[in-house]
Design brief:
- The protein is mainly alpha-helical.
- The protein contains 24 helices and six strands.
- It has a six-stranded parallel beta sheet, with helices on both faces.
């Protein structure tokens, strides 16, 4: 028996590894590979998760969800909502409500019951933080305006998904109102008690645990499983117990270290969760099921971005920012699959709905991974169709002068540092940025600023480039830099053009296109660090002095719109 179980799990993990390599080759996220491994491992093909071993695989999948939610909880510090900004917060909540509502109505129109439609609508409203952050990080776009907005929306979604996972197990269709109130009160009381215990007792004890890396790791596992067991015994769902375990430690200074240590363990069990979920595609896919999956997937990949773009337009952002942020979240989430699994375990959903969720996940995550990778190219093709999403609120900020000696594109990254040098040189300059908040802050400081998108050729043609002596771009996007270079050439300007690139290979491409100088931030940082070491050698006092000065600069820049 033990040998057979070992064999089947080895085959499942081996199949997942093989498909993950294939997925990486065609630039697909691992989740897709895991789901496909589940489909192949299920009754439609090899039936590796059925029969005598189904309960064991189900147990492992629940452990995977528990560890996943524990680590998610470690990243859900309640203070984060204060830091992600009004735009992301409002857009996140609005997207969930509108997407969930429209998804519910579509599901009703497709013939589903009210409770099933409610679960489907909720599942469609959440997007995958894992997929989006991974791809944006690969593209070096996490720190862009659209990247920060998209990640902010995802954080809000994670908080709401966590709340939904807490509330749903408490509501049973056969329970009386009195019993529901008692159960909710019990859950709230238990959660508050755990959070208070963690805040005033456990965090102090963790300083002692952290002296041993192994002890801290084992404590994390024990704490997650202990609360999962307690919540499960009380009928409140083991997954929520693990989530609360993570949230209770989120503000601890050891949360990042603990999460990092548990990720390898989580990854193993999460593979089995997605494999288990994929195996729930237990019957042959009929045209009816596929057509429903396609309709709901089209809503996620087209409707959800339109909803986000509309919300961001109200805030006055340019259509390019709106499109790039909206297209980033055009998929369903791992939270969506957990939510559907919870509905299945509570008896509200059938296995067919789980199979439908697998199809939607495969379609939307697959399509969105390509749409995010090629978002700039797609935008350039359809930009003329997106004028309705062009923010108008900040058009009055475009205040052009006749001539500027220096034109600086991009304030957030390095631009705010360059402004000090330009002011000391007494040069007439203007800052170009496509974040309305940044422009408002600059104008308030009496700094010349124009609101606009460096990737928009029509906008660039309106700028006074012809008489500029120096043009600087701190934007690392190759397309935008080439667009600026072409416009400088078209206007007949003899300005020196300094561009920025994150990668040396891309910098070489920009040099080949005739750009005068290319900044590579980490190269400059390395050169500066080497200069410091050569100058101060091993003198500790020198480093302390320059460290104090550096700290003063950082403290002074806290209120700067570019600081974060």
């Amino acid at each position: 028996m033990v040998q057979e179980v070992f064999l089947y799990i080895s085959l499942i993990v081996g199949l997942s590894a093989l498909l993950t390599v294939l997925a990486r080759f065609i630039k697909q996220p691992p989740i897709i590979a895991y789901l496909f491994a589940g489909v192949l491992s299920g009754p439609l093909f090899f039936n590796l998760v059925g029969g005598d071993y189904s309960e064991l695989i189900t147990l492992f999948s629940h452990m995977g969800v528990a560890f996943l939610l524990f680590i998610v909880g470690l990243n859900l510090d309640l203070k984060i909502l204060k830091e992600i900004g009004k735009v992301s917060t409002i857009a996140g909540f609005a997207e969930i409500v509108v997407t969930g509502g429209v998804g519910f109505l579509i599901a009703i129109g497709l013939g589903f019951s009210n409770i099933t439609a409610l679960y489907i609508g909720a599942a469609l409203s959440f997007s995958s933080t894992v997929v989006v952050v991974k791809i944006l990080s690969d593209k070096k776009e996490i720190d862009t305006l659209h990247g920060r907005i998209a990640v902010g929306i995802l954080i809000v979604e994670d908080f709401v998904a966590a709340l939904a996972l807490m509330i749903l197990p408490l509501v049973n269709g056969q329970m009386t109102l009195y019993s529901i109130i008692i159960k909710v009160a019990l859950a709230i009381g238990l959660i508050i008690a755990i959070l208070l215990f963690a805040e005033f007792i456990l965090k102090k004890f963790m300083s002692y645990l952290a002296r041993s890396q192994e002890t801290l790791f084992l404590f994390g596992i024990a704490w997650a499983l202990l609360l999962a067991m307690i919540f499960n015994k009380l009928g409140l769902s083991l997954e929520i117990g693990a989530l609360i375990a993570g949230i209770s430690l989120a503000s601890s200074k050891y949360s990042l270290d603990l999460g990092g240590k548990m990720k390898p363990l989580r990854d193993f069990f999460v593979i089995l969760f997605f494999v288990f979920f994929g195996s729930q595609l237990a019957t042959k896919v009929t045209w009816h099921t596929l057509s429903i999956a396609i309709i709901l997937s089209l809503f996620v990949t087209i409707g959800k971005p339109i909803i986000v773009m509309t919300i961001l337009r109200i805030f006055g952002y340019k259509k390019r920012t709106n499109f790039l942020a909206g297209s980033s979240i055009a998929q369903i989430s791992e939270f969506s699959l957990i939510l559907i699994l919870l509905g299945y375990n509570l008896g509200y959903l059938t296995q067919d709905i789980m199979g439908l969720a697998v199809l939607i996940a495969i379609i939307t995550i697959g399509l969105s991974s390509y749409s995010i990778y090629y978002s700039h190219m797609i935008f350039n093709k359809i930009a003329h169709l997106l004028n309705i999403f062009e923010g108008k609120k900040f058009k009055n900020l475009n205040k052009k002068e006749e001539t500027y000696e220096v034109i600086l594109f991009g304030y957030h990254r390095m631009g705010y540092k360059m402004i000090s040098a330009l002011k000391s040189m007494n040069k007439k300059f203007v800052v170009i940025d496509y974040n309305p908040k940044t422009i408002l802050a600059l104008l308030k400081e009496k700094t010349n600023a124009i609101y606009g998108d460096a990737g928009d050729k029509n906008f660039l043609s309106e700028l006074p480039l012809r008489k500029a002596k120096l043009v600087i771009s701190t934007i690392p996007e190759e397309y935008s830099n080439l667009m600026i270079k072409d416009m400088i050439k078209e206007t007949g300007s003899e300005a020196t053009f300094i561009a920025t690139s994150e990668q040396p290979r891309n910098a070489l491409d920009l040099y080949k296109e005739g750009i005068d100088y290319v900044l590579i931030p980490h190269h400059l940082g390395g050169e500066y660090a080497a200069h410091l070491i050569a100058k101060h050698k091993l003198n500790k006092e020198d480093y302390k002095k320059i460290g104090i000065e550096h700290k003063k600069q950082l403290e002074k820049g806290k209120n700067n719109s570019a600081f974060n």
